[in-house]
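In practice, a research group might receive sequence data for several interacting partners and want a quick structural hypothesis before committing to experiments. The following worked case mirrors that situation: the sequences arrive first, and a predicted assembly follows.
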Amino acid sequence: MRLFKELAFAATLSLASIFAIASGHAHEIKLGDIVISHPWSRPAPMASDVAAGFMKITNTGTADDRLVSATAAITGTVQLHDMKMEGDVMKMSEIPGGIVIPTGQTVELKPKSLHVMFMDLKRAPVEGEQFKGTLTFEKAGTVEIDYEVTAQAPEAH
Amino acid sequence: MLRFIRIASLVAAALLAAVTGYVYLTRGEAVVSVADIGGPFRLASANGGVVDSQDLAGKPFAVFFGFTRCPEVCPTTMAEMSAALTELGDQGKDLRVFFVTVDPERDTADFLKDYLSSFDPRIEALVPTADELAAMARAFRAFYAKSPTSDGGYTMDHTATVFLMDRQGKLASTISYGEEQATRMAKLRKLLGV
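A structural hypothesis for the assembly, expressed as tokens:
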């Protein structure tokens, strides 16, 4: 049974990657009821140890889901963070329970807001490149995505 | 009589506060007394040596509090400041911009120097000790605090404002995070008198 689960997981992952490649320019990835659009990251300054990942996540299902964890090829340490401005102060905090994706809604991970936080970078994201990552949802499961590295937020296609 | 004096001083204080508030508001500045922000400092530079605010007399400068493990506010502010310095060109050739790390525990001089090499060379990192940082942040009314993360590490909350200091080392203006590029340029040009 465990082997079956693992095989199913691997199959899902491979299918997901094929889909991601096939979807190419659209940068839209589907995983069950979850649709992920335009994952992107900014090029990091030289010697920088951190970077952030952004995207839109839509829940087309009838139940809330939750982004509980993420991984990325550029680092072993990935967390889900929120950033907000309180007056002139920038506050950043980890969201321990993960990011809730309410049913029928789109949650945007974007600058000055929710983001996937890449820490202790093995290599910094470089403009024009892509790097792989995974997202794990409580209900929908795990999906592989490609982050596009760009200084400007990609426009919706 | 004593009671009268007490009431009169209260009224006078209220009037003074109102007038002060009016003056600052009409100048478009924060209600905090502008003259109080800033102060002398002497900090190690990531480029070697020290930067002493006394040596800056007669020249405007800018101060930003940040740290290198900051994913957004710091690199964005540094990139915007670099673009502004490029646009100012020769008019801003003497403008020094200081990046004061609020994370001296992890931000070493070498690391900061590498980090800032991605930006305009007029931006220079200052590396305070924990005590020097506390004193400088107090003087600039800047906030910084550790925010713990689940891996046992931490990230930093901090003031995201760029402080623009005039030739006398007094606060001339501030640039907020996300401020319009045109406003940012106008404030820098005013600071430089160009």
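Before designing any experiment, note the following. Residues 10-25 of chain A have pLDDT under 50 and may be disordered. The first helix of chain A runs from residue 2 to 23.
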